[in-house]
Amino acid sequence: MLRHVGLPLLGALALTSLACSASTAPQPDKPTPSPIANAPPVRTTGVWQPAAGLTQQPIWPGSPPDGTLNPQPPESVDTYKEPAEFGGKSEAVLDIAIPTMTVMPPKGRNTGAAVIVFPGGGFQKVFITLEGTEICDWLTAKGITCIVSKYRAPGGNDYWDSTLKRQITPKIPRALQDAQRTIRLVRSKAKELGIDPGKIGVMGFSAGGYLVAQASNILTPAYKPVDAIDTISSRPDFAVALYPGHICRNGGTTFDPKLPIIKTAPPTFIAQAWDDPTDPICNSLMYASALDKAGVSTEVHLFAKGGHAFGLRKKDQPVGVWPELVERWLKQIGTL
Description:
The protein has helices spanning 9-14, 16-22, 129-141, 174-188, 190-193, 207-217, 282-294, 322-332; strands at residues 4-5, 42-45, 56-58, 76-81, 89-94, 100-104, 114-118, 125-126, 145-150, 159-161, 166-168, 200-205, 238-242, 248-249, 254-255, 268-273, 298-303. By secondary structure, the protein is of the alpha/beta class. The protein has a 9-stranded mixed beta sheet with strand order 1-17-16-13-12-7-9-6-3, sandwiched between helices. Strands 2-4-5-8 form a 4-stranded antiparallel beta sheet, with no helix packed on it.
């Protein structure tokens, strides 16, 4: 059974189809909207760089397997203007051909736990600040080593093509390849990073939440091994999916046929808002139900309001308590 649920699950599941079919939300797999509406970003060409003192490293020893979906221009960064309380700006990375990870060490006490964060972006871009480094600032303050994943985009997984006005599903799941490799690489560096190899989790937002679901349930390598690191398990020890997308299909009537659910998936925490205009609530409901059916310990919290891509931005609203709920859950499962 689901150990903890934010509202009675059976009643919520009975409303799943209604919630999705009646929603006025756009195509659920469209990209995350810009952090600030009506404020176009400033685009600069060049590889995204983390804050001073942090090191960004490629996750592959050479060229990534299978390259990119299509030939693409050099990597670039969209910088959005944000309120001063959120650092004044946020960034999204585009045209990522060389996936990387950036390690942010814990501040103060080291709990030995680590979290790999997969930002969202509809598999078109990666919102590396709002759903990456900002999340790590919170986690590292709790004594958790945080790793920001900059996975391949666009086309690292199925995405909405605004030109063709339809969903594109690549034959090769490059973002999943990057996710599996990052988990293995972090586990291989456990001693170096001062982390427990049995306390490595994943956390994802929107499209990144879908990567969390894939990494939790698809343990068969999505690529041919390139070195000894690929003999290490890619299974995360715990998983957190925030407003995940891409799971419910066809107006909420079907479950993603390419996402198997396994009984050995890690304990999972899911949170989303009912009024999400981008990814309907059926994504969380269907995923939670499938995990429960497989016997996977799952905690679900559904909030009346919060919209999409709320990250850590709505601390004064009920949805803003989700980080505290995650912390309590991590203590309950023995990670903290």
